[in-house]
Design goal:
The protein is an alpha/beta fold and 363 residues long. It contains 9 helices and 14 strands. The protein has helices spanning 16-25, 44-61, 75-87, 101-110, 227-232, 242-257, 260-281, 307-319, 344-361; strands spanning 5-6, 67-72, 93-98, 115-121, 145-148, 150-151, 156-157, 169-172, 189-193, 204-209, 286-287, 299-303, 322-323, 334-337. Helix 4 links the parallel strand 3 (93-98) and strand 4 (115-121). It is globular, with a radius of gyration of 21 Å. The protein binds pyridoxal-5'-phosphate (PLP). Catalyzes the reversible conversion of 3-phosphohydroxypyruvate to phosphoserine and of 3-hydroxy-2-oxo-4-phosphonooxybutanoate to phosphohydroxythreonine. One of its GO terms (cellular component) is cytoplasm. It catalyses: 4-(phosphooxy)-L-threonine + 2-oxoglutarate = (R)-3-hydroxy-2-oxo-4-phosphooxybutanoate + L-glutamate; O-phospho-L-serine + 2-oxoglutarate = 3-phosphooxypyruvate + L-glutamate.
C-alpha cells in the first residue's frame, strides 16, 4: 500500500489515523456485529455516535447552549437556499459580500427569495483579496449579512470578520471549518460542507443561533429546508448521513487529541508559511494572492505564467506522489489545498519538489 500526498480542494485528505480506525471498526462496530453503514439510525448504537459527535464539536468550538448544531444533507449548496428561506423573514432583504464563486452563487440563490444587496466585492481583481469590511453600506432593514469565510477557489480568507453594524452574520465556512478557533457568538449562523476540512462528502453542518430556528419561513419552504424540522428532531427527522456523521465524529476526536483548534491552527499556520515563504522568493512560481493579509491558510493557488510549464508541473508532481495540484480553471496554474489532515511532511515534500522543478526549468 502506498498513499500519496493529496492536495485536492475537496473531497480531500483525511487523517490516516482516522481512516485506520474506521477500517478496524468496519465489519464489526464495537462488537455489534455490523458496520455503522448497516445500522438503524434509530438504534441506541447510532444514537451514541451522533450524541458524542455533537458533544465533541461543541467542545472544539466552545459552542454556547443557545446554538443548535445540525447535521444536514444536500451539501453547502442546499444551505445557499436554506439561509434566505429561513432568515429573510423580517425585511426580506440581506447583504452579501462577494469574494468569489461560492459567495456569488449564494448571492444569486438568495435573490430568488428577497432583495439582495452586494455590499462589497473583490471581482475587480479576480477575487484575489478580501475587501475592507470596516464600513460597509449595511442598513438596519437587512435580515443578515453574508460572507464566504474562506474562498476555496481563489485562496483568500477573512482574518477579521466584517463590521456588520449589529446585523446578524452568516458565514459559509466550508473550507476553513475547524481549521482554527472561531468565536461562534460572533456569528448568527456558521455552516459548511464537511468534505473540505472535516470528513467525507455528503454532510453539511450548520451551527445556528436558536432564535433563528422558527416556523416563520419563506412561504412553501420545503419541509427539509426548514431548519426547525431537523432542530426539533436533533438531526434525526429522516435518515441522516450516518456514515458521514460517524467519520466526522472520529475526526473531532482526532482534533481533540491533537491540541484542539488552537493546536491545529498552529500547525496550519506553520504549513502555510512554509509554502508562502517559498512562493514569495521563487523566480519561477508566483502566488496569485499577493495581498498577504488576505491569504488563506487552506488553499494556496500559484502559477508560473506559462500554461505549458504549469501542465508539466502538474504531470511531474503527480508522478512524484503529489496529487491533485491542478488549479481551478478560473485561476489556472496550480492550487495546493493544505487542510487540517495534510501533514507538514506533505508540504515540505511539495516545496522540495518545487525547488527542484524551478532549478530545472528556470530559463
Ligand atoms: C465546496 C464549497 C461549496 C460547495 O459545497 P457542496 O457541499 O458541494 O455543495 C460551497 N462553499 C464553499 C466555500 C466551498 O468550498
Amino acid at each position: 500500500m502506498s498513499r500519496v500526498y493529496n492536495f485536492s480542494a475537496g473531497p480531500a485528505v483525511l487523517p490516516e489515523e482516522v481512516l485506520k480506525e474506521a477500517q478496524a471498526d468496519l465489519l464489526d462496530y464495537k462488537g455489534c456485529g455490523m458496520s455503522v453503514m448497516e445500522m438503524s439510525h434509530r438504534s441506541s448504537m447510532f444514537n451514541d455516535i451522533i450524541v458524542e459527535a455533537e458533544k465533541d464539536i461543541r467542545t472544539l468550538l466552545s459552542i454556547p447552549d443557545n446554538y443548535k448544531v445540525l447535521f444536514l444533507q444536500g451539501g453547502a449548496w442546499t444551505q445557499f437556499s436554506a439561509v434566505p428561506m429561513n432568515m429573510m423573514n423580517k425585511h426580506h432583504k440581506a447583504g452579501y459580500i462577494t469574494t468569489g464563486q461560492w459567495a456569488t452563487k449564494a448571492y444569486k440563490e438568495a435573490s430568488k427569495y428577497g432583495e439582495v444587496v452586494e455590499l462589497a466585492s473583490s471581482k475587480d481583481k479576480n477575487y484575489t483579496y478580501i475587501p475592507d469590511c470596516s464600513d460597509l453600506p449595511i442598513t438596519d432593514d437587512m435580515d443578515y449579512v453574508y460572507i464566504c469565510q474562506n474562498n476555496t477557489i481563489y485562496g483568500t480568507e477573512y482574518w477579521e470578520l466584517p463590521n456588520t453594524k449589529g446585523v446578524d452574520l452568516v458565514a459559509d465556512v466550508s473550507s476553513d471549518f475547524l481549521s482554527r478557533p472561531m468565536d461562534v457568538t460572533k456569528y448568527a449562523v456558521m455552516y459548511g460542507g464537511v468534505q473540505k476540512n472535516i470528513g467525507p462528502a455528503g454532510l453539511a453542518i450548520s451551527i445556528i443561533r436558536d432564535d433563528l430556528i422558527t416556523d416563520d419561513v419563506y412561504p412553501n419552504t420545503p419541509t427539509m429546508l426548514m431548519w426547525k424540522t431537523q432542530a426539533d428532531k436533533d438531526s434525526l427527522f429522516n435518515t441522516p448521513n450516518c456514515w458521514g456523521i460517524y467519520m466526522c465524529g472520529l475526526v473531532f476526536k482526532w482534533l481533540l487529541k491533537n491540541g484542539g483548534l488552537e493546536g491545529i491552527a498552529k500547525k496550519n499556520a506553520d504549513k502555510a508559511k512554509i509554502l508562502y515563504d517559498y512562493l514569495d522568493q521563487s523566480k519561477l512560481f508566483k502566488p496569485t494572492v499577493t495581498d498577504k493579509k488576505s491569504r488563506s491558510n487552506m488553499n494556496v493557488p500559484f502559477v508560473t505564467g506559462d500554461k505549458d510549464l504549469d501542465a508539466k508541473f502538474v504531470a511531474e508532481s503527480k508522478a512524484a506522489g503529489l496529487e491533485n495540484l491542478k488549479g481551478h480553471r478560473t485561476v489556472g496554474g496550480m492550487r495546493a489545498s493544505i487542510y487540517n489532515a495534510m501533514p507538514k511532511a506533505g508540504v515540505e515534500k511539495l516545496v522540495t519538489f518545487m525547488e527542484d522543478f524551478e532549478k530545472k526549468n528556470l530559463k
